[in-house]
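Quick entry between incubations.
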Amino acid sequence: MSLVPQALGGWWHDYVCPTHDVELARSPEGDHRCPRGCVVVGEKIDAAALVLDHQAAAGTVRLLAHRAARTGDVAAREQAVAMLGEYADVYDEAVSSGWSGASESWMLRGKLFAQALTEAQWAVQVADAVIVLGADGLAPGVPTMLRSLLETVDDARTVLVDERDDARSNYTAWLDAAGALLARALVVCGEPVHAGLWVERTLDHLVLAVGEDGWEWEGSTYYHLFVLRAYLLALRDVKPTDLPQASVEALAAMVRVLAEVAAPDGRLPSLHDGPYDRAPMHREVLEIAALSRGLLTPTGLDTVERYARERLGADDDGLELGLDGWFAGPPVPTKAPTRGSVLFPDVGYAVLRDGRDRLQAVLDAGPHGGAHGHLDKLAVYLYGADAWQPAPGVPPYASRLRHGHYARTVAHPTVRVDGYDQRETSGQILEWDAARGRVTASAEPFVGVRVRRSLVMGDGVLADVVTVTCTDGVPHDISLGLRPAVGLDVRTVPQGAVSTWQGDGARLHGVHVSSVPAVMQAGPGRGPSHDPAAPQLVADWTVHAERVVLASLYVLDDQEPDVNVTFAPAGTTTFHLRARDGATTIEVTP
Ligand SMILES: [Zn+2]
Ligand SMILES: [Zn+2]
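Done. Structure below.
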């Protein structure tokens, strides 16, 4: 029996249940099943599964190589060498059939896979295994495979960067990482290849794709991770102190983004496109944490790492144990991340958190973010002991719910008008005060409709004031979505409405009062994208008006809070909160 899959792969995003929109998994019998019981067949599904099989096989080769190097495990080495030998034949076959016929027109094509991107990810693992194993005992076809792969990667890069003029693409980072590791692997095999070229390309991409605030330009948490991981991989065997100061600072800022945007429990908000909860992503987070430790000190990723490890449980492959010597020198000192409130001005994310790091709000007031952006301007995500109102992420891309629901406004806790989606637009931060935990942002997500959203964070308390003004002088149906990932209960009360968010061991209360009468309507919706078919009660706070102020106070407490809200004609909203330990007044002037 073969040690590695023999057939060509397709596009992994096709591996999704058409009924429940969850990622499929291979059953012990070899068929493709969804966790809700479906058995799905089809050519695309088989080809998608093959991608995951190939990536898993390459991951195994890499893991075995690192284990052999770390422990001297001879059997692990022999198996890794044998798998590489088989892969040399498989890749030879793939090259002889040319560019993939499974690609869709928009894809940058690969040979073994529909996408060159997939090929680059696969190649990184294969090349790293060769570097770790050394040339001794490798099948003669292995250097040939590495050369062919380098050619594929280089050709795909030419199409992407020169023909499509898209150097900033996250694909470039992966093609460069693959190039860097393939070149190093060829050097290990005794071939004179200039590996430094790919490191230079990586450092150039860092300048193109990463803003001053440390975020990859798309503003997607997942693509940020994706590109950061490619950079760290590409810099294998580089001495951190030899890197240009600006490059180290940019990489440090990227790592800091993760530590600073993470929820109190270490969960990374799934802003824009990206999975909500997926084992391979958690493993990637662990790999990034391990590689970052080799480059920088401190990284501040302990909580993020702990959360990923917890979510993985038995699926943790322990790869990070072998990554200690990734860089050729000690890590460089860098600024420690903050757990205070922080603004990322380029992507327009404002993160507010209370002094005890129990409640966190993330406001999206930045640019749309390209093809991975969502119609979600001025959404506010809430995290704490639980994912109260998280960014929902998206299912695998072949799911109709990616664009049919999760990229749309309806999936996000923000404003809709007349039932429409927002247009692609940018928000603007008007006021930011980290010390006092205050932010105000604005956007015009519909032509002629101005929205302002102000947040004020107190100790376990968040005031949220949304002002919507229709400039055409005509009333419209204005809705603000509540989009929980926990049990939600909403009730109408004389003052307006109250909401109760039941988390796992903690409870959040909302008091909702509007400047003109509005209706809080509960109904069935969808929760986060890892299980779109799971029933989730959501709510829309709706009013037919020309102008409205929608004011909410969220309080972290077991008991329903006593809150009074007043609106001054000048526009100031005042919240009076009477709690067991005294009274608090919060004024919000948007
Ligand atoms: Zn299903
Ligand atoms: Zn989104």
